[in-house]
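With this grant's support, we have settled on a layout for protein records. One resulting record is reproduced below.
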Amino acid sequence: MVIALSVIALALAACSGGGAARKRDADGRVLRTLAEQDPSSTLYARSVSQAARGECGTETFDVLTCFAYRGHGYEGAQMALGQCLIATGQEASGAEWVRRAADSGWSEAQKLMALLYLKGEGVPQDVIEGTKWAKLYSRNPSLLSLGVQPDISVAQQFSGRLTSDQVSVADQRAADWVPAFWTPSTELDRSVKRSCAVDGKRPAPTSADVVRVPDAY
């Protein structure tokens, strides 16, 4: 148990700033980062739950930013950060983070992308693209392998909105889709990854910073 917690603590230390200057209190003592305060990741789990409820305070943003910038393997944090950005009126930036999680195959992010395109929230309204994401969500292997039934209300919201030709286009887009995993690639991204837990949340990168890579599996 001690060894396991030590490994978790070392992993979370990646959010502590690396070589970045550490913040200090009035007496010159180094302030602990969020990750160091919570080596068992309860802050992370709580922040993801808070984001789902739209409870997006400063600490929630800080924790989610720290983990989201770690890239592949933290798609839950990426989606949650997107939810918080959308909830606080930053729809375009929020949709970009949700897309990163959806691109990797995160089922709930695919579901949310379908609804964002249906409403035109943070993205141009596009029922074809929305239908593509709805189809990917309904066929998501991570859900099916666990025996979880997709939320059928998502597909129902697109019912009757597309012509047969548009449905064919959406089907083809879904068939052509392959996972893409976002990782910090620009120096700005890497800087945020190094220092996010020290300096707090940073602006989300633009879509130009998203790097698409082949399916690693």
Notes: The chain has two domains: 21-104+183-205, 106-178. The chain has a mean pLDDT of 78.
